[in-house]
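Interim report, section 4.2 (structural modelling).
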Amino acid sequence: MKFHDSVCGAALFALAVFIFAYALTIPPMPGQQYGADVFPRLVAIGLGSFSLMLVWRGWKYSPKDTPWAAVAPWARDPHTRGNFIIAFVLTIGYVLLDETVGFIPLGIAILMILFVRQGVPWRKGALIAVIMAVMTQILFGQMLRVPLPRGVLTGWW
Amino acid sequence: MDAILGALNLIADPYVILLICLSSAFGLFVGAMPGLTATMATALLVPVTFFMPPLPAMAVIVTTSCMAIFAGDIPGALLRIPGTPASAAYTNEAYAMTVKGQAETALGAGVVFSAIGGIFGTAVLATSAPLLAEVAIKFSSFEYFWLVCLGLTCAVFIALDDPVKGMIALFIGLGVALIGLENPAGLPRFTFGVTDLMSGIDMIPAMIGMFAIAEALRIVAAATTRLPPARAISGSIFRGQWQLTRKYPVQILRGSTIGTLIGALPGAGADIASWITYATAKRFSKEPEKFGTGHPEGIVESGAANNAAVSGAWIPALVFGIPGDSITAIVIGVLYLKNIIPGPMVFVNQPALVTGIFALFFLANLILIPFGWLAIKSARHILAVPREILMPIVLLFCIVGAFAVTNSPFAIGVMLVFGLIGFLMEEHGFPVAPVILGIILGPMLEQNFVTSMIKSDGSFFGFFNRPIAAFLGVVTLAVWGAMLWRGLRAIRAPQPV
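Predicted structure of the assembly:
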């Protein structure tokens, strides 16, 4: 979804209002005039001012037939939209399941699904997915000692 | 002298040499692959550099970035698709030369003048940075406040076509920097009770998200990922380069100088340097009518400029801790992870590291010629690597890279959120580089602002009491005035939605 500049500006102005309102709740530093609340207020004022400029510019100077919201070309095509959503969902899935399932099975699944979605033949995709996931585990998990979760493979090596 | 010998000793280590060779190959591959940028290459290397001492880590980043910026010329000349944004300015020119049967000359010019520009930029870096550091060591919070303001404004004012969106991006970055305990009172701000947010948003996962995940999502969402086949390069790429050097010495010098200066400006990197110098080459050319028809003059000047900018960007990064471009933004993050705070004290406390970085730049630009030759000769095979296989692997490396920062899945979440923000921002015409600058410089700006206000008892005139602070303040205010004027003019121009 692609939004009109004025819509983007309005949303960012709302964010600026939220930052300013939050800053009002930050207690002052005892004995000091300038504490943790000063900078958020300045950021909110800056963000709010430029957001309003964007709202005004979009409203005043954008072509009249510009829609408030339009679907981006990639999002109109079910295949490319699916690719995007799947890549996103797979990463969220990794965050949620990494401890339980482990890096290697999840890595293979992520690569395999994305390869197949991108048109790679599944046998070739499966082979590359297994090799890449295992190699990444060896490089990062064993050689560089990043504690990639082993999940269901705990105790296998 | 001891520092120079120490640095050379460190670089002569077989481990460092091996890393330089590996990162050369990696940088050339990533740079030559359309869609993968030099910044993405650097971001992907961050988890690998965690486990290295500082100098080898810097060797990997310096070599990769120098190689990747040049390698962007390869698909530009052969397929009319720039490998990195830094090659976009002269892609049509290089491709027109290929169509005329001069691909070897176009690619050879890319290698040779990139190396010359890179060496020029390194010479400026090596001579100016220590001198600037001697001045910077006397800076107080007032000077640093103005310097950060100037850096942030330059990033928006000089680098971007749309200052309004650039400023919004910058304030988003400064807003992100508000999160956590790192503030004058040490109070939790915008943490909403989430423990992982107490230490703030880690800049490395945010950068991997904005520079790598956003790009990976864009390619994954693209309708076609396959590249057309590239022709093989059979002739000598060095034939005719000496003639070009003798014909265009002014262009080489001008491109290298402008490139270094633009690189040294915060936020403006190799891509801006390349566009500006292509324009200056055409503007001052005796044969401007030949531009666009396969004329090497623009390639000579811009090719020198973009690699000079890579070195130039390290000047503010090393001396002031202010990134000159998105690559040095990552470098600053890597140095922080190694408990090295970029700034003038690095020149005092880590002289061998600083000298080592200069030596690495010289070395990387020298070996660019043989490695570049190899990459050009094998371009056909490099470009045949299917991107539909590459992008999912990039996504997996991003996940591992973000995880490695804190060994926590929270960092992967941060990476994903920033990847989505970066993707959406670019979809709506907002630049992402100012966000990263805001995240990096936000704490420095706040700390220096609050400290200065306390020192001056709340009087803003205190910011102009010291001569250098006053000078920087006046320059900053002048840039803000010019920016306001430009903003008011730009506001009248309708922007595409």
